Structures are given as structure tokens and as C-alpha cells.
Amino acid sequence: MSKVVGIDLGTTNSLVAYVQDGVPVVIRDKSGDGLVPSVVSVSADGTTHVGREAQRRLLTDANRTVYSVKRFMGKGVEDVGDDGRLLPFRVAGQAGGVVRIGLGDREFTPPEISAQILRELKRRAEAFFAEQGEVDFEVDRAVITVPAYFNDAQRTATRDAGRIAGLEVLRIINEPTAASLAYGLDKRHSGLIAVYDFGGGTFDISILRVEDGVFQVLSTNGDTHLGGDDLDLLLTERVLADLAPETGGLPRTAEFVQEVRRAVIQAKWDLSERDESEIRVGDYRRRVTRAEFEALIQPIVDRTLGPCRQALADAELAPAQIEEVVLVGGSTRIPLVRRLVGELFGRTPHSELNPDEVVALGAAMQADILVTGNREMLLLDVTPLSLGIETMGGVTSKIILRNSTIPATGSEMFTTAVDQQTAVDIHVVQGERELVADNRSLARFKLRGIPPMPAGMPRVQVQFQIDANGILSVTASELRTSVEQAVEVKPSYGLTDEEVERMLIDSFEHAEADFAARLLIEARNEAESVIMATEKSLRAPEFAAIAAADLAAGEQKRIESVLAGLKMVLNSTDRETIQKWTRALNEATQHLAEVIMNRSVQTALSGRSVDEL
Amino acid sequence: MTSDTTARIAQICRTCGGGAPVDLHFCPQCEKILTLGRQGDYFAFLGISRKLNVDTADLEQRFRTLSRQFHPDYFYNAPPAERRASLERASYLNDAYRTLRNPATRIEYLLSVEGMDRRRTERAEGAAAPPADTVPPALLEEVFALNEELDAVREMRAGGARAEEWKGRLERAREPIDAKRAEHEAQVQALAAAWDALIDTTAPASEAGGAPERRRVLEALRERMLERNYITNLLAGIERELETQSGHEVI
After folding, report:
1. How many angstroms separate the CA of residue A214 from the nearest CA in chain B?
2. How many CB pairs under 8 A join A and B?
3. How far, in Å, CA of A157 to CA of A164, rounded?
4. Residues of A with CB below 8 A from B67's CB?
5. Are residues B162 and B221 in the same domain?
6. A189 secondary structure, DSSP code
7. Is residue B128 part of a domain?
């Protein structure tokens, strides 16, 4: 049976976890690192890098590197606005369409970039399962988390990313809810919980009631555009302004901006541990105290409090009624954040679990529930935003209210305005505002095939269904004739099914290129280690003695010439040539290696016999 | 579970073709989840009687228990028909719980299943404007007085009166409306108690020749709900007026 995993597809970092013997575990690389930076870099030759390597390339090849792509998921070009500032990559696309991200001469949609990150996580998990000796180590199904306050377009974009990465997305679940599941694991308690999730790019607050293993979300609120990124941007702009006189109006390269960004992020981290830090960029030095830092970021952190109060009001609860407060997301490491949350709820928040990992752990648990049918726990989530349709005068008529438990349905009756009219246009929006223009446009539908009747006679019932992923589907039927209506969906800021299919095929073709590139890198690594070992032996102090005593005439010369040959082909892109020369060097040095081995064994043996005597 | 619902066979199991009472969720013969039919209502679905005073803790318990029985999470590996049934049943459960949990929506829902709801306005081509509310006769006096006060307040404001002055007058204008609301609240509660008592003693109002007593209570409730919505709008209007800073007209 193939494997299922839970994935936290974060703005800054992404993780993959699975359930082993009932316990969720984060899958780590060999060095114990569970985080894959959500950074993708496409080099000039088309090779794709994801994670740490891509992050390094921000300092050397910034224009071909994209980070925080999550902020662009499900967005249109006109939504980007001010966000494009200081980003090294191009943000483009046609008005009214999906955002496109330009890297070099190629353009990608945000779901395609996210799919690269997902594919990297899939690879990491598969390598891990293979190493565990699993016969069927393929990972083809996953639960993926999204911010609770993500709208339908953003959720759909995330699901599309999963499909492009070759994953069956079992479920899209909300990050704070996933975190509560992981927290509830060892507690078995009941009561009211607030989950405060302040991550790299998004902020969520969810209020839950836990009872009999049912995790019921009572209300949720947030800001999908508020996170650590905003703190970094603020600090980066400060430092750049500081530096302006020194750089004397010289063009700031994208790489330089990234170096500043890296330095301020380091300082931000330091200030969670210490009272003082120093921002260093080249010769520039700037001491920052925690008090200065807090004064600077307070306005941003304060923006999380309004949604908290709204969520409490929607759940009809006072702050004091909340029994536990759970912190999730890297930005909750900041002492000021902890203090403000503590003050709001009047209690010390929980932070026992690693705030970077808890969401992935919860996602893995939900994946396990779905495939095993394990009924110990149940998540009941809500839709974060009201769903409505456009009525006369551009006013929104709400059909499913925010904080409704999902799955949920709503229906609306439509009729015609003109005799013999056979089609009606419907515009679906999401949001709390009165005017359609202030809400998020989700889709436009055309109801066709209405039987021709006098105006006002047809009774077309349109049924809106929000599924357990928080994603909308629409069906319609004319009640007088029971004729099912064809509903054509044109997502306002999404990809059509055909586009997703095409990207999936592209990614398969690309996957082959990726695979070849990886094999080449592996061959080079292998060659490099043989070169290093050989050079070490040749340079060793005892080599002269060995060569004189044990090597055949010309043996050293042969080793040296094969070594030089391998070094020459090392940087070619021809994997087979590199492998051929690597094998040749291995053969040429085989005798030498044996001799060295024998000598060290003899030394060890003689050493011991001396001891024994 | 009421005796009058359990006796009726109202659902047919799509899996084995057997029949089931309207308030069952799983087929008594083959134990598969039942497709949601058109019969039944939120009260029957949750297994409670059509009373207006609901034990909230009991309602929540039923909601959780049923969620655990047919949430889509537990049907991920089931055949498509059962998955569909689970999605429909879970959606219906959520809609039912949300509607019955809130006292106001509970009354409105009762009125609709008893055939007493306000005529639903149909939407033409991208939908019509909200229907212009006519003033309920019982509120004519209050609404007339309030409108006069609002005019006076706006004049004061336009004439540059101090904020505390016109706001004080507005607050005083609000008092009779608040009183009316409290009065309504008490009336609604009395009617709800009367309805609950009738549930135990008389035949359903919706049946032919059904007890006129029931119909009378429901009509009174409908009247109160219309007035109540009107009062809520009036109070919201005053709130908006209070938040006005300058001479802009809001209402």
C-alpha cells in the first residue's frame, strides 16, 4: 500500500509528516532538519532547485528565485499592488487573470511553484520510506494545510498545486485546526481553546470546543496578508534607507536586497533570545535593542488583535472563558507576540510543541483518520467567510454565513426577467461586505437550459455546497419541470481543469529532466569523493615509503594521469563520461588502497601485541 | 424520538431497497448510510420534538453523536453513493444544528415547516432588491415618534449642535424602542411556552382540520417575529446615526 502524508505548505517553510504506530512524526533529512524552505530557484539551464539550495541562490541568482509564493496563491494581478516591492522575481500576468511569476525567460503560476515545493516534500518522504525498507514507498496521497482564513480561490489553488505535483489531495484542512489536533493528542481534555497562528505570511485565530474527541471550530478569523514577512519587509526598508547615503544612489541589486533581508531576519531571531543584536551587511553595522525592535513592530502585531476579538464575539465568548491558548507559527517566538496574546486572554499561552512543526503533525493525523477510518477524533471546521451572490445594484446577498460548520449547503431561488429567457447569469462572491465590489469574486455562472416560459415563471433552485475542504460546488434545477441545469463555472482567479491537466503533463516531462539533473549531481558527488580520497593518499607523509616499497613501476604515474582525466571531465554534463572516469580511478587506486589498508591493519595489530606483551 | 415519526416508513434504502422511518440515518436491514430524502425536517432529523424550548446541551450532544456517525471523514474509502449520502447527511446535520441552536432562527424554521413562513421573494435576473418593509401596525406609533425625533436630531446636527446634545436626544428617542423590544421578548417567550404545551396535548396544526389553537399561536408568533425584525432594523438605524460624525444623513 502506498503511503499517505500530511503536508504543511508554509509561506516560509514547508514540512511533511506521517503517522507511525499511531504517533505523528516529522520526516527529516539526514542532518535532522525537518524544514524545507519554501523557496524555488530555476537556474539559466532550466535546473530547478528547492529548499536550502534555492535559499542560497537568493544571494547569487536572486532574479531566478522565488520565495513566499503562498502570498500569491489564488490571486489576480490587480491584488498584488504594493506587495511586489523589493521582491527579486517578476510578478506579472494579464489583468483579470491569475498572477504569473517570471523567473528568467520563463513564467509560472503560483500553483506551479507550490507544486515544486510539494514535489520536493514528496521526494523527501519517498526517500525516507525507501530507506526504512518499505517495499511500496511511493507517496501519492496527502492532506495539505491552508490558513483558516483562506478563501475558496486560495484553497482551490492549493488543491491544484497538489494535483500538479502528482498527489491526490485527500483533504485541505485549516492550519490552526490541524495544530489543535496535534495538541489534543496527549491531553484528552475537553474545553474551549483558542489557537493563535502567526506564521510567515498569514495570521489566523480559531476558537474551538473540544468534547468527546470532537474538535469543533466555533469561529475563525484572520488576515491572509499578515505575517513575519511584513516584519522583515519593514526592517529591510529601514536598513536600506539607513544605507542610502553610503551607497550614494548606486543601483541596489536584488542580491544586495536579499543580503539585507537575511541580516534583518537573523537579528529578528536573535532578539527572541537576547536583549540586543547587531545587523551586519558588508561594512554596515547597526545595533538594535529589543525595546527598539518591539516599538517598531508593535503596530503590525497589534493588527492580530482585532481578528481575535471578532472571533471571540462570533463564538459569543469572553476572553476569560477560553481555557487554553495555543501558539502556532514561527512569529509566535517573538516575546512581544507572546506578551500581547497573554494579556488579551489573561493566561499564559501554550508553546510546548514546536510551533514550526505542530501543523504538519496535525495534518498527518488527519490523513491517518481518512485512510484508516480511525474514529477516535473528528475535526469539524467552519467556512471563514460568508458566501453570497450579486443582486441588483451590486449588493451582496448572503447565502451561507461565515462560521457555518462545513460541509454546509445553501440555496437560492432564481427566475427570469424576460419572456422565453433560457439563461441566467449568477455572480458568486465571498466576504462580509455589503457591496459586491468590496468582496472577493469567486466565479461567474451561466445557468442554461431553462425551459422557455413567460418572465417570472421558471423557478430555478441553485444549490451551493461547501464541502469538507471549504471548497464550493454549484448545482441547479428548474423546479416546475425538474430540468437539471448545466452550470458552467469560470473561476475568477483560478486555473481551469484543462490548465491543471496541462501543467501536470508538463511537470511529468519536467520531472524527467529533473531526474536526469539529479543523477548528474550524484555522479559528480561520487567523482568528487573519489578524487578527494585519492589526493589525500597521494599527499600523505608515508606515501613516499609506500610507493617505494609496494607500488609497481609506473603505478603512481597511472594513478596521477587518471586523476587528472577525471578532474577534467568533472564539470561536463555527460554523466556517463564522469562515471566511466570515476570507475577508472577506482580501479587504478585499488591496489594502493589495499596496501594502505594492510599497513594500517599491521600497525594496529603490532600496536596491540606490544600492549599485550 | 416521538412516536408519531418512528412508525412511518418514509425512506427507501438505495443499497438494499428496504424501508426506514424518517428519523433513521442508517438502514435497519443492511446498516448502510441512507440517502437523504425530501421528507423530514430538522427536528425529526435530530430526533427531538418540535418544541421551541430546546435543551442546548442535549442538542450539542446529539450534534456530536450524529457527526461521529456520518461525517465524510469516515466515508473516504466507501463507494461513491455512500460518500455522497454522507456528504448530504452531514451538510443537513450542520444546517439543522445551526438553525435550531439559535432561538430566533429556530422560531422562523418552525414557522416554515408548519407552513407559516413569510412568502419567500424570488429573485429575478441576478436577484431583486430587498422587499420594502411595511411598518407593522403594532409599531406605527413608535416609528412615527422616532422619525420625528430623527428629523429633529439631524436638524440639530446640521445647526452645529454639540455632539453630546444631539446624541443625548437620540439616546432618549431610543428608550421607547428598547422597551418595545423587551416587551416583545417576553411575548415571544410566552408564546413559545404555549406552543410547547400544545405539542403535548393537541394534533398538528398543519393537518387538515388541525387544532385551531395551534394555528392561533403560530400566527401570533409570526406577527411577533415580523415586528421583532423591524425593531432590530430600527435599533441598527439609531446605532448608525449615533456613529455619524458630521451632518451626513445615514438612514
Report:
1. 7
2. 101
3. 10
4. 214, 378, 380
5. yes
6. -
7. no
- Final residue in a domain of this structure, among B101, B118, B147: B101
A16, β-bridge pairs: A7
Domain annotation for chain A: domains and CATH numbers: 3-226+303-380 (3.30.420.40), 228-299 (3.90.640.10), 387-495 (2.60.34.10), 499-612 (1.20.1270.10)
Q: Are B144 and B80 members of one domain?
A: no
CATH of the domain at B90: 1.10.287.110
What cell was used for B175?
428608550
| In a shared domain, residues B93 and B141 | no
Mode of pairing for the β-strands spanning A191-198 and A168-174: unpaired
Catalytic residue among A61, A120, A152, A175: A175
Rg of chain B's alpha carbons, rounded to an integer? 24
Are B96 and B142 in a shared domain?
Answer: no
Q: Which CA distances in Å does B86 have to A174, A381, A510, B25, B66? A: 21, 16, 39, 10, 11
Q: What average pLDDT score do residues A608-612 get?
A: 48
Look at chain B and report how many structural domains it folds into: 2
The 3 state secondary structure assigned to A204-216 is EEEEEEEECCEEE
Place of cell 511537470: A507
Q: Which of A305, A304, A279, A306 is nearest to A292 (CA)?
A: A279
Average pLDDT, rounded, for chain A = 86
The predicted structure's pLDDT at residue A545 = 87
**pLDDT for residue A170 is more than 70:** yes
- Amino acid (one-letter) located at B191: L
Q: For residue B84, what is the nearest residue in chain A, using CA coordinates?
A: A467
**Residue A197, helix vs strand vs coil:** strand
At a CB cut-off of 8 Å and minimum separation 6, what does A566 contact? A527, A530, A531, A578, A581, A582, A584, A585
* CB nearest A409 (choices: B71, B91, B120): B91
**Residues A436 and A429 sit within 8 Å (Cβ to Cβ):** yes
Question: How crowded is the C-beta side of B26, counted as CA atoms within 13 Å?
Answer: 10
Query: Is the alpha carbon torsion for A533, A535, A536, A542 positive or negative?
Result: positive
Question: What does the pLDDT read at residue A605?
Answer: 64
Report the range of poorest mean pLDDT among A41-45, A63-67, A81-85.
A81-85
Tell me which residue has cell 458566501: A387
Give the residue on B whose Cα is nearest the Cα of A368: B73
Q: Do the domain assignments include residue B116?
A: no
ipTM comes to 0.79
The answer to whether A352 is a known catalytic residue is: no
Sign of CA dihedral A532, A538, A543, A547: positive
Contact (CB, 8 A) for A128 and A27: yes
Q: State which residues form the domain around B45.
A: 3-101
- Over residues A436-447, the mean pLDDT reads 83
